[in-house]
């Protein structure tokens, strides 16, 4: 079977009747708990700031997570190769629990941030572990169905997560609320770990793979730390330098050829980063933009964000069937997803340009964007984690690469949007104009994703692959 002709997508029944069922259940439960964690974390932050009297330490509280995540992505693949899966699994579980307990018991912003940093470090290690297990042991046909189902796991958390978290904070306080998701996270992590160890998915891989110096890889967490912490202090004018440093570090964690859109996983990793930059960047600033720039009630923006997540899940569930209708490569569906996201974001830009933003129109436009993300995301994950060249890329490397592309795109999107707003005000524009300019930048990124999705394999690479296989 050629690289461009992956096996057919399996049905849900086939997935859960296969030997991959236990791992699939663990991964799906993990996604469900991740959705709840996201909403709980967002809800408790204001209560944490008020209780710890940390109004001046807001950047410290909300940024430690991203720095811990990026540090884990630097270390995870190396640890999996050098010490094996069991110590990595144990370290991830210990850090996750310990971090949550430290944050819940914190009496200051610094202690709370240390706990969040530790929990994010553990979560990142376990995330690479689980993703690598899926890549190493689940064939592409089953993997496509599994990735589509993982998005569906966000429907219920998106519907009940925010309101349930608000009720818990009022009833029992933010400290207990922060711990409510931990048991579910532990169960999911243990299920994934046991299934991966049982199937031998993390057997030591001695295949030579391309490695970058640790000093280069550490530029990612170091740069993000400088940007986040420097923005809140006296180094604000220099903090943008941190983004450049982080970008260099991110490139160091990605397979060679990602920046130049080389065939195979590198091109799809680049597209994943571009799409996450546009979609999650806009999503992060949507509340501020809708309320502060466009004068909409908060309820409309909140509903639009939740509905977009539901539409993402619906698009993901439809994607395997559409991929079959559009051909084995799925390029048409991938381009359609990117174009749909660009259309939704572009609709918001158009409304802002003519000053006609309304709650229902914002709701409709962002639902369209969410549906497009649902179409594109499973394909991007599959293509980014399926090696199609003779160059060796082990599961740990691919798992780290896909998590880096996704998280860096998302974090840099939000950071770049905030920087645009800040720069706009520094040069005399209004906050609203800065927010609108950031939305235009996000839309441009999503538009750029369409031609990348439609790129065909280069003839030279195709001939080389054919020669290698003959």
Notable features of this structure?
about 475 residues; mainly alpha; disordered N terminus
What does this structure look like?
- With 470 residues, the protein is mainly alpha-helical.
- It contains 19 helices and no strands.
- Helix 2 packs antiparallel against helix 9 and helix 3 runs parallel beside helix 5.
- It is globular, with a radius of gyration of 21 Å.
- The two termini are 13 Å apart.
- The N terminus and C terminus are likely disordered.
In a nutshell, what does this entry contain?
The protein is mostly helical. It contains 19 helices and no strands.
Secondary-structure class: mainly alpha
What share of the residues lie within helices?
A: over 70%
- The tally of helices reads 19
Instruction: Please outline the major beta sheet.
Output: none
Radius of gyration: 21 Å
Overall body shape? globular
Bin the strand percentage: under 5%
Task: Give the secondary structure arrangement, pairings included.
Layout: H1 12-17, H2 21-51, H3 58-83, H4 85-104, H5 109-137, H6 140-152, H7 155-172, H8 174-179, H9 182-199, H10 214-217, H11 219-231, H12 240-253, H13 265-293, H14 298-326, H15 331-354, H16 359-384, H17 395-426, H18 431-454, H19 459-469
Helix pairs in contact: 2-5, 2-6, 2-7, 2-9, 3-4, 3-5, 3-11, 3-17, 4-5, 4-9, 5-9, 5-17, 6-14, 6-16, 11-12, 12-17, 13-14, 13-16, 13-17, 13-18, 14-16, 15-16, 15-18, 17-18
């Amino acid at each position: 079977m050629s690289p461009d002709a992956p096996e057919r997508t399996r049905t849900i029944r086939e997935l859960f009747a296969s030997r991959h069922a236990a791992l699939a259940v663990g991964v799906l439960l993990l996604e469900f708990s991740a959705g709840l964690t996201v909403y709980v974390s967002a809800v408790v932050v204001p209560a944490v700031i008020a209780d710890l009297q940390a109004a001046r330490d807001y950047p410290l509280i909300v940024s430690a997570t991203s720095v811990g995540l990026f540090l884990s992505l630097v270390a995870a693949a190396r640890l999996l190769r050098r010490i094996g899966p069991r110590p990595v699994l144990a370290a991830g579980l210990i850090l996750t629990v310990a971090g949550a307990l430290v944050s819940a018991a914190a009496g200051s912003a610094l202690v709370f941030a240390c706990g969040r940093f530790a929990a994010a470090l553990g979560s990142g290690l376990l995330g690479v572990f689980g993703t690598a297990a899926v890549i190493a042991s689940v064939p592409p046909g089953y993997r496509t169905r599994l990735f589509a189902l993982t998005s569906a796991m966000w429907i219920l958390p998106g519907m009940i997560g925010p309101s349930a978290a608000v009720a818990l904070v009022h009833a029992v306080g933010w400290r207990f609320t922060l711990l409510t998701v931990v048991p579910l996270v532990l169960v999911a992590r243990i299920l994934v770990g046991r299934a991966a160890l049982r199937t031998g998915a993390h057997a030591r891989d001695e295949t030579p793979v391309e490695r970058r110096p640790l000093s280069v890889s550490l530029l990612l967490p170091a740069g993000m730390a400088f940007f986040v912490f420097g923005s809140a202090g006296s180094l604000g004018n220099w903090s943008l330098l941190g983004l450049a440093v982080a970008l260099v570090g991110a490139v160091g964690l990605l397979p060679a050829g990602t920046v130049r859109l080389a065939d195979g996983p590198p091109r799809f990793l680049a597209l994943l980063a571009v799409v996450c930059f546009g979609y999650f960047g806009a999503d992060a600033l949507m509340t501020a933009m809708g309320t502060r720039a466009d004068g909409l009630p908060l309820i409309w923006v909140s509903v639009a964000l939740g509905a977009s997540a539901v539409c993402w899940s619906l698009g993901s569930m439809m994607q395997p069937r559409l991929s079959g209708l559009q051909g084995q490569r799925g390029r048409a569906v991938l381009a359609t997803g990117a174009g749909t996201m660009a259309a939704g974001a572009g609709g918001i830009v158009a409304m802002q340009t003519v000053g006609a933003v309304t709650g229902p129109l914002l709701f409709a436009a962002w639902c369209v964007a969410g549906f497009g993300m649902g179409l594109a995301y499973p394909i991007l994950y599959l293509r980014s984690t399926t090696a199609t060249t003779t160059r060796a890329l082990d599961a740990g490397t691919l798992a780290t690469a896909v998590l880096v592309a996704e998280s860096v795109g998302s974090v840099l999107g939000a950071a770049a949007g905030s920087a645009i707003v800040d720069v706009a005000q520094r040069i005399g524009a209004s906050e609203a104009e800065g927010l609108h300019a950031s939305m235009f930048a996000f839309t441009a990124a999503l538009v750029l994703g369409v031609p990348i999705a439609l790129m065909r394999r280069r003839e030279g690479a195709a001939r080389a692959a054919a020669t290698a296989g003959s």
